[in-house]
Automatic annotation (TrEMBL):
Residue span(s) of domain FAS1-like dehydratase: 31-148
Highest taxon of source: Bacteria
One of the Pfam families matching this protein, by short name: FAS1_DH_region
Species this protein is from: Nocardia veterana
Protein name as catalogued: Acyl dehydratase
Annotated InterPro entries: FAS1-like_DH_region, HotDog_dom_sf
Length: 387
C-alpha cells in the first residue's frame, strides 16, 4: 500500500472540502428494504430477533407491518473512503439517532456530508494523525428522516505505525486466540442461551437505575462472520465487486486496492477485515472487525433488551482497540437514569460495554431508550406509519 506523511498541502486540500456533500453511489448497497435485503442484513449482524424476519409477528406488534431493525440503514450506506491519500484509516466512533421505523418495501436515500477534520496531532501509535467528521442522513420515499449517523475516522501515517509496531515493547498477542474445545463449547452454549425480550413489554415503571442490560455474546469471531456482514450490506468502501468490474474501479481509484503478496490478486482496502496480508499492510497483526459492524452489535444489545415495544432513540460508541478474528466479545451495560424527555416520552439512559476475553472494553458506549408505560401508547406506536 502507498505510504504518505501529513503535509501542509494535504491539510489545505482537505480544509477546502469541509462542508461538501460527497458522491456515494459506489458505496450504496441496499436502496430498498426488501424482505431478502432485511433478512440478509440481520443474518450478517447475527441478530436472531424474529421481529425483523417474521411478517406476522411484526404486523401484530405496534409497528403494524413487517419492519427492519434500526441498524438496517447502516446496510444501505455505511461509510466512504475519502481524502488523505497514502494514510491509513480507522473508523473510531459513531453517534446514531433513530427517528422513524424502516418498513419492508421502503426506499432509503442516503447522503453523506464531510464536516472537516480535527488535527493534525501527535500520536503514540503513528507519528501524526487527523480525525475526519462525517454526517450520514437517511430518508424514506416519503422524504421522512428515519436516521442520522455522525461518525469519525482517524487517519494516520501508515509507515510510522508499522515501524512503531515493530519497536514496541508490549507483550505480543497470541493470534488467533488459543481456545480449548471446552472453552469454545461454553462460549457457544452462552451464545445460544441469549434471547431477545421479544413480545413481552419492558415497562418503564418496572425499570430501576442500576438494572443490568442482558448480555450479548459475539464469537469466537470467524472469517464468515466478516464476510456475512459485508455481503449483508456492510461493505465499508466501496461496493463489493469481482474480476473486471473490480479491476476497472481500481484503475480509476488506485487507493481503493492493494496487491495481495500471496495470491497476486488485486484486493480492496477493506479486505483488512478478512485478509491477513491486508491487515499487515495496514500495520495490524491480524484481521479485525468493521467499526459499523461493532455498532450494529450495540444496537442489537439494546433492541434485545427493550423488546418489540421499545425504541432506541440514540446510541453512541467509541471503538477502542481491535477486535481480531478469533476474539470473543461480551456486550452488556447498566441503566444509569430515568426521565421523561421533552417529547413526553418515558426514557432510560444506559451505559454499555463490550469486553473481549482479555478484559478490555473495546466499545464503551451510551444510549437513550424510550420504553412503553402501562397508561400510554408505546414509543413504537407513536412512530408507526398510519397509512
Amino acid at each position: 500500500m502507498p505510504e504518505a506523511v501529513i503535509t501542509d498541502e494535504m491539510v489545505a486540500s482537505m480544509q477546502a472540502r469541509a462542508g461538501i456533500e460527497l458522491r456515494i453511489d459506489h458505496s450504496v448497497n441496499n436502496e430498498e428494504a426488501t424482505r431478502i435485503a432485511v433478512t440478509k442484513f440481520v443474518g450478517g449482524v447475527g441478530d436472531i430477533n424474529t421481529l425483523w424476519t417474521d411478517a406476522e409477528q411484526a404486523t401484530a406488534s405496534d409497528y403494524g407491518a413487517p419492519v427492519a431493525p434500526p441498524s438496517f440503514v447502516i446496510g444501505c450506506f455505511s461509510g466512504i473512503q475519502f481524502g488523505w491519500p497514502g494514510l491509513g484509516a480507522f473508523h473510531n466512533a459513531t453517534q446514531a439517532h433513530f427517528h422513524k421505523p424502516v418498513y419492508w418495501g421502503d426506499t432509503i436515500t442516503a447522503t453523506c456530508r464531510y464536516d472537516g477534520f480535527t488535527g493534525p496531532r501527535p500520536s503514540n501509535f503513528a507519528g501524526r494523525m487527523v480525525t475526519d467528521h462525517f454526517v450520514n442522513s437517511y430518508r424514506n420515499q416519503h422524504d421522512e428522516l428515519v436516521a442520522e449517523i455522525n461518525w469519525q475516522v482517524v487517519n494516520f501515517e501508515r509507515g510510522s505505525a508499522k515501524s512503531r509496531a515493530k519497536d514496541s515493547n508490549k507483550p505480543e498477542l497470541v493470534l488467533p486466540h488459543p481456545w480449548t474445545e471446552n472453552q469454545i463449547q461454553a462460549i457457544e452454549e452462552q451464545v445460544l442461551s441469549e434471547k431477545p425480550r421479544g413480545t413481552e413489554p419492558r415497562f418503564w415503571e418496572d425499570v430501576e437505575v442500576g438494572d443490568p442490560i442482558d448480555p450479548l455474546t459475539k464469537g469466537p469471531i470467524g472469517l464468515t462472520d466478516e464476510v456475512a456482514f459485508i455481503a449483508g450490506g456492510g461493505t465499508p468502501i466501496p461496493r463489493l465487486k469481482a474480476h473486471a468490474a473490480a479491476l476497472a474501479d481500481y484503475q480509476l481509484h488506485p487507493a481503493w486496492s492493494f496487491r495481495d503478496p500471496v495470491m497476486g490478486s488485486s484486493e480492496p482496502i477493506y479486505a483488512v477485515h478478512y485478509n491477513k496480508a491486508a491487515a499487515n499492510a495496514m500495520g495490524v497483526a491480524f484481521q479485525y472487525d468493521v467499526g459499523f459492524q461493532r455498532q450494529c452489535w450495540q444496537i442489537q444489545l439494546l433492541t434485545n433488551w427493550c423488546g418489540d415495544a421499545g425504541w432506541v432513540v440514540d446510541c453512541s460508541a467509541q471503538y477502542r482497540g481491535f477486535v481480531y478474528l478469533s476474539d470473543v466479545v461480551t456486550l452488556g451495560g447498566q441503566v444509569t437514569g430515568k426521565s421523561v424527555n421533552d417529547a413526553g416520552e418515558h426514557v432510560v439512559e444506559v451505559t454499555t460495554f463490550s469486553r473481549n476475553q482479555r478484559g478490555a472494553d473495546v466499545m464503551p458506549g451510551t444510549a437513550t431508550i424510550a420504553l412503553p408505560t402501562r397508561d400510554n401508547p408505546s414509543p413504537v406506536a407513536l412512530r408507526a406509519r398510519s397509512e
